[in-house]
Every structure is written in structure tokens, then in C-alpha cells.
Amino acid sequence: MNLRRVIASACATLVGLAAFAAQAQPAYPNQPIKIIVPFAPGGGSDFIGRFIADKLTKSLGQTVLVDNRPGAGGLLGIELGVKAPADGYTFILIASSYAVNPSIFKLKFDPITDITPVAQISQGPMVLLANPKLGVKTVKELIERAKAKPGEITFASAGLGSVTHMAGEYFASTAKIKMTHVPYKGTAPALTDTISGQTNVFFSSPASAHAHVDAGKLVALGVTTSKRATGATFSKVPTIAEAGLPGYEAVLWHGLIAPKGVPKAIVDRINKEVAAALANKEAVEKLETDGVAPAGGSADQFAALIKKDIALWKKVVTDGNIKVE
Fold first, then answer.
1. What does the pLDDT look like over 209-230, one tens digit per residue?
2. Per residue in 57-109, pLDDT tens?
């Protein structure tokens, strides 16, 4: 009987200590949160990062800071972020280029198992643009021209291994055509040379393209998503799939990840706050100024998207024997 009393007393003490520890644990978040944006200030990714940081600051009641860490196509900032403590106070903004990197570069982390997917923020198309002097007005006409003269049509990109490069390679392999890739150091020079006719076509973000399409300097042949884009400039532009290349789909997206091991309760909290931020009209209007739409969805859905795109771009790289020195 005495032994039973001792055990019961010990158990009660442990339960009490556990309850005390739980009560003593400060509520999350109790200090500033950092979002690492692995790109330079002023670009589309920085816009998305600052947009969501502002929304989370208001909803969480804690300052959410943006820490720009550009370099190596975004890899420097991502590598820094995934090595941070898994305490819910460091997140990393990633773009769709994240899914390309494993097939192009030697990474210092596993892009699937060394992260915690949190929430997808945005989604949107690229637009296949052509110089008017090329004389093609549809995707079918572009494919026919490329088949008639293999390698003669040139496509610009924002750089070797960029999403715009991969979109062009994916288009060529799916259509079974040969185009000549011309890499540039960024979107601006690629657009400039496509407008001037130095290159023939370019896969661009809607935000970068709409003014040039409206001015008649470029022709929009198709969008890369499975659904048509919104907005006055591109709403009547067909998807590439419906315009002559069934099955073609490439999505531009942004989302939040965290280091491996962040508690599920924190992931669920941030996912919920991101979803709430994306659900209002102001969010839709702000994101549309950058040519994208709100995404949302669960952390598991975002994880599935990352895996799907990593597999997609790996196949494109393998099929095209693409190498980046």
C-alpha cells in the first residue's frame, strides 16, 4: 500500500510539473520572425516576400522581417535558411526556380527531406512571347516554323538554368522541335533583345511582358498554365496546351518553407495565417500587379507541388542533356 501511495504521489507530481511547464511555455510567437528572401530587393520575389511579411506582422502581432540574401541563383539564402534553428522564427521564401536547382546545381542540402513546407503563396503563368517580325501568331505556327527550319528559331532566357530557360527546353522537347537557346543575365536584357529581334521568342512573367504586348512590340502566343490568365492583357490568350501542345504546363509560384523539424503546430498556424491573408480582395489586387494570383492550400499540398516540379524539371534536364558550367 505504501508503495502504491509513493507511485501515485510521484505520478501526480510529474503531471503537475508537466502542466506547469506547459503553462510556463511562452505563446508563439514571442519574438520577431525572419523571412529570408534569397533574391535582391526590388524584384518580383522581394515583392511577394514583403507582401506576406506585412500581412503576417498584422495577424501575428509580432514583427516579421524580410532578410534579403541574394546570390548563386537563390541558393545562398536558401542554404542559410535551412540550417537555421527549427523553432519557427526563420522561414525562407522560395520561387519555382527552387524545383529547377536540384537538376542543375550540386546542392548542400536535400530539397525535399531537409525542409518543412509551410504554405504556397502565389501561382501564375509564364507567357510565350514572339517578336512580330517572326511572322507567327499562334503556338501551332511557331511549332510548324521550327519543324521546317530546325534550330533557326532562337529563344531567349533569363540565364542558364533559369525557369525561363527550362520552360523553353520543355516546350521544345514536348513539341519535338529544335530551337537555339540564347541565355542572358536577367529578364530585362532578354526582353530587350526579343523586342529588337535579336532573338525570336521568350518565356516571360506577365508583369514584365504586359506593357510590351499592349504596345504591339511583342505577340503573346500562349500562357504556360492549364488555365488562362486573368487581366485585360492576357485573359484572351490561350493556354499553350489548348493552342497546340496538349499536356504542356509550367507554373510560376512562390511559397514559404522552414528548416526541417519545425513543430506541426507552428506550421499549421503560419499556414492558416497565410491563407487568411490571401483570402481578401486587397491581396488579390496586390498580387495581380505582379502578374500572379493567390494560391493557398495545405502544407502537404505545397510539399506535393515541390516534389512534382522537381521531378518535372529533372526529366526536362535529362531529356535535353542540359548542363550548366
1. 989 999 999 999 999 999 998 7
2. 999 999 999 999 998 878 999 999 999 999 999 999 999 999 999 999 999 99
CATH class of 33-123+252-320: alpha beta
**Residue partners of 268: CB distance under 8 A and separation at least 6:** 299
What is the enclosing helix (H) or strand (E) of 96? none
| Cα 200 from Cα 207, distance rounded (Å) | 20
Cα(221)–Cα(277) distance, integer angstroms = 33
Beta pairing, strands 252-259 & 33-37: unpaired
Same fold, 33-123+252-320 and 127-223: yes
Q: What single letter denotes the amino acid at residue 1?
A: M
| DSSP letters for 171-211 | HHHHHT---EEEE-SSHHHHHHHHHHTSSSEEEE-HHHHHH
Q: Topology of domain 127-223, per CATH? A: D-Maltodextrin-Binding Protein; domain 2 (3.40.190)
Separation CA 166–CA 275 (nearest Å): 29
Q: How many CB atoms lie within 10 A of CB 176?
A: 9
35 — phi, psi (to 5°)?
-110, 115
**In this structure, what is the dihedral angle of CA atoms 75, 77, 79, 84, given to the nearest 10 degrees?**
-170
pTM: 0.85
CA-based angle 116:122:124, to the nearest 5?
Answer: 130
